[in-house]
Amino acid sequence: MTMIFGVPLAVFMGQLLLGLINGAFYALLSLGLAVIFGLLKIVNFAHGAMYMLGAFTTLLGMQYLGINYWAALLLTPVVVGLGGMLIERVLLRRIAHLDHLYGLLLTFGLALIFEGSLINFFGVSGARYPTPEIFQGGFQLGFMFLPKYRAWVLLAAIVVCFATWFIIERTRLGAYLRAGTENPSLMQAFGVNVPLLVTLTYGFGVALAAFAGVLAAPLYPVSPTMGSNLLIVVFAVVVIGGMGSILGAVVTGLAMGLIEGLTKVYYPEAANTVIFLVMILVLLLRPAGLFGKEA
Amino acid sequence: MATTQTLTPSMKRERRANLRRNAFYLALIVIGLVAPFAAYPVFLMKMLCFALFACAFNLLLGYAGLLSFGHAAFLATGGYVTGYLLSSYPTLTPELGILVGTAAAVLLGAVFGALSIRRQGIYFAMVTLALAQLVFFFYIQVPFTGGEDGLHGVPRGHLFGVIDLNNSLAMYYFVFAVFLFGFALIQRTVHSPFGQVLKAIRENEPRAVSLGYNVEAYKLVAFILSAGLAGLAGSTKTIVFQLASLTDAHWHMSGEVILMTLLGGVGTLFGPVLGAGMVVGLQHLLSQSPLGNWVSPILGLIFVVCVLSFRSGIVGEAIKMYRKNFK
């Protein structure tokens, strides 16, 4: 059997793939954080909760309303995104003029509310969402076995990341968004409805998190705490990459997933912590982050 | 000529204000001294430990404007080091255990501080959170913390080898003394020239830089001081409860201390004490009521209400109201 530094090729590639999948989630979540941060200048601490709500909406939709996976893939981001817009309209708007740390604190409170309430109804252990019929099984690639669903997650995440990049960098709406990031009051003077843009942006960022939640539902146990643990890692990813660039967020997310996967192969004890260690290294060598322009 | 005649009206006002403040502190100390005869001492000690923790956190947020989302790491470090030492070396006296625990938190604070002050604002909060999570995973894996179980049955021992801390009244007065020491240190720091520079950095960092202050050094010292005091709170708490566990290292704890400070009043000396008392009291009440499982969402709700409607906290709002109506 082929070995890579004393590890069988199949194991090596398998862990690399798992890492890449985790990386896809980091990329989706940090992308949403970056989009929201760009216009609202707040770090959405409720992002993990939104991801978790996405997974729960998918699970409960199937259990009680018989909504299948494909419909959930479309409906869940819309539903959770609308909820996000409501939060922006009712809560975040009131503190938009204040120090942005208050936004962090408010969304932290929201995360506690969502997570804590769901723990009371569903416990912490989590439930499983069945893998959709057509994704049963996988491909035998010769050097490794690639489950179909994992291949799909990777594909879907990359397509969505690319679509987001395209919308922001190549369309008129995206141009408004970028301009709003630079100078919202001038935008408003030009007749652009900036408050609406802010609401839509927050909704879109949240919808990205919910989409990640739907993708995650068949992959990981659906539990109320699934979001918060992931979010702290995503924060580290964001510190590493900086929130200035869309592509930067995606690349950093995928790369950190790969590094995590590699660590699992060679030194599993550090797999949980390696991203934080990379963050420390980046802070020492390049304090503004890999793609960051320090604000 | 008598000296009193040379006092200007503003000096008189200041003198009166000082007198009032001293009377207030004196009253609080008296309340603290008689409290164990009116309430359950362990509960009071818990309040005092968290009050010190919140005051330490407030030193950083309220006076240097730095929001740390990782203060649980220092509380836990103080607790674990003290707990481990006292459990493994029964001859060690508790005050030495606390000293070493606090020193460990100071060291960790120096590392955290040096790394996190390289970024500002929101990034600072995220860096501290990530570093604290690193520490959390570290404490899960290393053997000396007892992993998921934590350290149980840490002996309280004899203070200075003389005073038996198993007596709950003796324990209480010791904790009260530790708290007063921490509070006085913070009070001194805030009103010192060092504290004034910190406030200047909070208000306008570029201007402080242009005035020639080494802003990074000031921030770092404030961070280390805050971390050390948080560690002191953790060490003391471990001796009180004879327990050090992962709960103290979890990010929920970092959130709780933010809430205590915010609720009581960021940037006021007494606010965090009040906030800690309220949060600990509320947790105690809720745990005995049918809402026992809803502590975390209720704390979240208070967070939201606080941020939306009284950002200065209870003490802060009270000061504002007093100034509006009486001055």
Automatic annotation (TrEMBL), chain A:
Q: Subcellular localization, per the record?
A: Cell inner membrane
> Topologically, how does it sit relative to the membrane?
Multi-pass membrane protein
> Per the UniProt record, which residue ranges are transmembrane?
12-37, 73-92, 104-129, 149-168, 189-218, 230-258, 270-289
Q: What is its main location?
A: membrane
**A matching Pfam family:** BPD_transp_2
What InterPro entries has UniProt attached to this entry? ABC_transp_permease, BCAA_transport_permease
Instruction: Give the top-rank taxon of the lineage listed in the UniProt record for this protein.
Output: Bacteria
Keywords in alphabetical order, please.
Amino-acid transport, Cell membrane, Membrane, Transmembrane, Transmembrane helix, Transport
What family classification does the UniProt entry report for this protein? Belongs to the binding-protein-dependent transport system permease family. LivHM subfamily.
**Protein name, please?**
Branched-chain amino acid ABC transporter permease
What is the species listed in this Swiss-Prot or TrEMBL entry?
Billgrantia antri
What broad taxonomic lineage does this protein's source fall under? Bacteria, Pseudomonadati, Pseudomonadota, Gammaproteobacteria, Oceanospirillales
From TrEMBL, chain B:
- Respond yes or no to whether keyword Transmembrane helix is given for this record: yes
Give its localization. Cell inner membrane
Q: Which UniProt keywords apply?
A: Cell membrane, Membrane, Transmembrane, Transmembrane helix
Establish whether keyword Cell membrane is in the entry: yes
Q: Which InterPro entries would you find in this protein's record?
A: ABC_transp_permease, LivM-like
Segments crossing the lipid bilayer: 23-43, 50-76, 96-115, 122-142, 169-186, 257-282, 294-314
The way this protein sits in the membrane is described as:
Multi-pass membrane protein
Name the Pfam families for this protein. Answer: BPD_transp_2
What this protein is called in its record is: Branched-chain amino acid ABC transporter permease
What is the scientific name of the source organism? Billgrantia antri
